Amino acid sequence: MSMNNEISTIMSTGKMSTLIKKTLKQKLAVLVPDWDDRVLDVPASGEVLAGPCAVVAFAEEVPKSAWAGYRRIIKILPYARPEDGGAEKVEAWSADLIEGLHQVRLVDEAGESFTCIYLGSSDSDRVDAGSGMFTRSLRFGVYVPEDSGAALVESEDAWLAALQGWTQQELGSNWSVYGDAWPGGYDTPSVLWRLAGCSTSVAGTSALEVRQQWIGHVLTDHSVLTRQTVTRLVEKLAVQSRLAVNETGGQAHEGNTRYITVDEVTADLQADAYLNGQIRLTLQQRIRRPGTNVPLIREIYHSKGME
Description:
Blueprint: H1 3-31, E1 39-40, E2 53-65, E3 69-80, H2 87-101, E4 104-107, E5 113-121, E6 126-127, E7 134-135, E8 138-144, H3 158-171, E9 176-179, E10 190-202, E11 207-219, H4 223-239, E12 242-246, E13 257-267, E14 279-288, H5 296-304
C-alpha cells in the first residue's frame, strides 16, 4: 500500500470513528434521559466529572471480519452519584444500555449502517476517585460492513443464487437477502447466507458427492420476529427435498437445471444474528466424476505427469 493510500485509509477510518461516536452519543442520550445529554468523551487529566453522566471511549481495534466488516471495541461507562442510588443505579442503566444497543443496527448522519454487539463488562464496579461516583465499563463491539452497496447483486455462485432465490420467495419482497457479506448500508429485516465450508467424497465408481456447509444470519429489529423467522426457515428447509440450481446462468430451462439436496439444517436461537448467524445448513449434490471412463493408471499419468 502506498503512503497516499495509507493516509487516505487513516483519514477515512478517523471520519468513520467520529460519526460512530456521535451517533452512539445521540442514542445513549435517548436511552437514558437521566443523563440530561451529558454523554461525554474521556475527561482530560485532572478534570472532575459531574454526574449523573456517561463516558464513551474507543478501545482496541480488532481484525476485520470477512463478512461483518471493520470492527472496533468501544467502552461505555455510566456514572451515578451515591445519593442517586450509586451501584444500583449503574446496574439499572447498564441493563438499559445492553437492551437498547445489543444487536441493534444504527445509522449515522452519512447514511452508513453499523451494528453494536455487547461483549461484557471489562472490570468490576468501582468508585471514581475524583468525583466519588459509582461506575463500570461496558464493552461493545462496533461492526461496520464494507461499503459494497446495498443493492442486491446476482450471485455468480449457483448454489448461493439458488439459496437466495428460495429465501426471497419464502419471506417476500419486504426482506433483503444478501450473499457472502453484509453490504454497506444493509437493511432490515434481512437474511445473509455465507459459505462456511465444503467437502467431497466418492459415491460409487462414477460419482462424487459434493457437500457445502452454509451459515444463515436472520436480522430484524424485533427479537420475536427474528426467532419466528429462524424457526420458519429451518422448518421449511427441513421438508424441502431439493433446490433448483441453474448451472450455466441465464433463465432456467430443461437441460441446464440441476438440483441440490437439503441434507441437514439446525438452528441456535441464542447465536448472535449479525456476527455468527443462527442457521447451519448442509447442502449436497452428486456429480459425475471426470474421466471415469479412463483407466485409473492412465488418469493419474496424464493429470500429474512423471515427477
